[in-house]
C-alpha cells in the first residue's frame, strides 16, 4: 500500500532515495523495484531487520533491475548519518507527526537533499485524524504516538521555513479512514467483529485491487483521504545566493 506517487516524486532509475521512518519498507520496496539506490532508515530494530530481509528477498527474486542497490540503516531522524547534499529524493511518510521537534527533522531533510532534490512528506490528514483523537486517547497518547495534527497550510508553511518550496499535493487512503474511526469508537485494543469485518475488506482491496474499490477511493480521497501528501523541492540555488558567473559580473 503506497501513499507516495512516484511519478510526482520524479523518482528515476539510479537516483539515491532516502526512505525516512521506513517502517517495514513499503516505499523502499517500490523504489528499489524502480531501479533506485535505496537507503531505508528507521529507529526500530525490528523494522530495520524486516526491511532488510524483504529487500534481500526482492533482490534474490530478480524483481529489481540491474544497477538498483539498497542499504538499511538504523538511525535518528534528527541526526541523519549522511553528508550534506548527498541524496536526490527523500520520502518521509507518516513520520513527522511522531517527532516532537519536527523543525529539526525538516532541517535534516533539507541538509541531506541535493540542490534541486525533492521530498515527499505524508502525514495524517487533519479532518480524519481529528475524529480519531476525539474518539480515543489511546489512539495517539502513547509512547511513540502522534504528537500533533497538521493542517495542510501549516505543513506547507513549515516546509517553506525549512527552506523548501512546496508544490503538488494530494490525499490518499480514503477507505482506511472509516476503519480507524471504527477502531477508535469501539476501543483500539478491542477485537470487535465490526473492525475485523472492515479489516477483511481492506485486505481484499489490497490483494485484489478490484475496480469498485479503486473507483470509490478515487472519489473519496479528496473528501476523507486518511493521508495528506505534499511534494516539495530544495531550490537549486540557495535563497539570496548568486551563481558564480553572476557574482563575477556583479563585482565588475
TrEMBL record:
Signal peptide (UniProt feature, chain positions): none
Annotated organism of origin: Geodermatophilus saharensis
GO molecular function: S-adenosylmethionine-dependent methyltransferase activity
Domain of life: Bacteria
InterPro entries the record matches: Erg6_SMT_methyltransf (IPR050447), Methyltransf_11 (IPR013216), SAM-dependent_MTases_sf (IPR029063)
Keyword terms, alphabetized: Methyltransferase, Transferase
Name this polypeptide is given: Methyltransferase domain-containing protein
Ranges for domain Methyltransferase type: 18-120
Gene Ontology biological process terms, A to Z: methylation
Keyword Transferase carried by entry: yes
Amino acid at each position: 500500500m503506497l501513499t507516495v506517487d512516484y511519478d510526482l516524486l520524479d523518482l528515476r532509475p539510479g537516483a539515491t532515495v532516502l526512505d525516512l521512518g521506513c517502517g517495514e519498507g513499503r516505499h523502499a520496496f517500490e523504489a528499489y523495484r524502480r531501479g533506485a539506490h535505496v537507503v531505508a532508515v528507521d529507529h526500530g530494530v525490528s523494522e530495520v531487520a524486516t526491511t532488510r530481509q524483504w529487500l534481500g528477498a526482492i533482490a534474490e527474486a530478480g524483481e529489481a533491475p540491474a544497477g538498483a542497490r539498497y542499504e538499511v540503516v538504523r538511525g535518528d531522524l534528527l541526526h541523519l548519518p549522511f553528508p550534506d547534499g548527498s541524496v536526490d529524493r527523500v520520502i518521509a511518510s507518516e513520520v513527522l507527526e511522531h517527532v516532537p521537534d519536527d523543525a529539526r527533522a525538516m532541517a535534516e531533510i533539507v541538509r541531506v537533499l541535493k540542490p534541486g532534490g525533492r521530498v515527499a512528506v505524508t502525514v495524517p490528514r487533519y479532518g480524519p485524524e481529528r475524529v480519531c483523537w476525539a474518539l480515543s486517547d489511546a489512539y495517539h497518547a502513547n509512547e511513540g504516538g502522534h504528537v500533533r495534527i497538521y493542517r495542510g497550510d501549516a505543513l506547507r508553511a513549515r516546509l517553506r521555513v525549512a527552506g523548501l518550496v512546496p508544490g503538488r499535493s494530494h490525499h490518499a487512503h480514503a477507505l482506511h479512514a472509516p476503519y480507524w474511526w471504527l477502531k477508535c469508537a469501539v476501543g483500539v485494543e478491542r477485537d470487535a467483529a465490526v473492525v475485523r469485518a472492515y479489516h477483511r475488506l481492506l485486505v481484499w482491496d489490497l490483494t485484489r485491487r478490484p475496480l469498485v474499490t479503486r473507483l470509490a477511493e478515487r472519489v473519496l480521497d479528496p473528501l476523507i483521504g486518511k493521508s495528506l501528501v505534499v511534494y516539495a523541492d530544495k531550490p537549486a540555488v540557495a535563497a539570496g545566493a548568486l551563481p558564480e558567473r553572476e557574482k563575477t559580473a556583479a563585482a565588475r
